[in-house]
Amino acid sequence: MIELKGIARYYTAGHTRTHVLRGINLAVKEREFVSIMGPSGAGKSTLLNIIGMLDEASEGEYYFFDHAVHELNEKKRAALYKDYLGFVFQSYHLVDDLTVYENLETPLLYKKVKGSERKSIVCDALDRFQIVGKKDLFPNQLSGGQQQLVGVARAIISNPKLLLADEPTGNLHSEQGKEIMELFAQLNQEGTTIIQATHSETNAAYCRRIIRLKDGWVRDEPEAAA
């Protein structure tokens, strides 16, 4: 499903080149549940953003299904994202001038889901995440935890083939975090491929494989507990 070959990401200022990722080789099969772990600054979010087609590698090759992503223009990458991916962002990335309901509806509009079906799907998501009472509120009227729940709901609402999650439970209390991880485990069992970046060993225990980054390199890939 995913193959990265020699992926590097660096930034150049004058004669100085600062590396964030170096020589990343990684393959992820369909239906895998993978955690990317490592200290702050290790490159976890950058790697996730490259996989999610929100950032481009400075060097290397990225293959997603039969697509050579590193050769695609921005428009074609955006089309792949809309068709296949859901993304839970650490900083929410909700649309400020849309209500909770409208934020949840947006991925379905991109996929041209019919109006009556959209309404049913959004209502189910509001109920599933216990945010029915928040549907007419705007993001700035929600707590951080509530925004995170909306972000998770939006990411999975269109049943993506690949779900990417950057610290998905970082703003949730422990019980909410457990519920989200159990939901991810269920989605994975139903066929969704999931890659999460996390500091949490508890969250990583839900995964089948752990990729550990340090200073932009993959250090090892121990198996998570079954």
Summarize the model shown.
With 226 residues, the protein is of the alpha/beta class. Helices cover 34% and strands 27% of the residues. Helix 6 links the parallel strand 7 and strand 8.
Q: CATH topology, which one?
A: Rossmann fold
- Overall structural class, as computed from helix and strand content, comes to alpha/beta
| CATH class value | Alpha Beta
Residues in helices, as a percent range: 25-40%
Mean pLDDT across every amino acid position: 93
What is the CATH superfamily?
A: P-loop containing nucleotide triphosphate hydrolases
Total number of beta strands: 10
Low-confidence segments, given as residue ranges, are none
Number of helices: 7
Largest β sheet strand count, sense and barrel closure = 6 strands, mixed
Instruction: Report the β-strand fraction as a percent range.
Output: 25-35%
Give the total of domains: 1
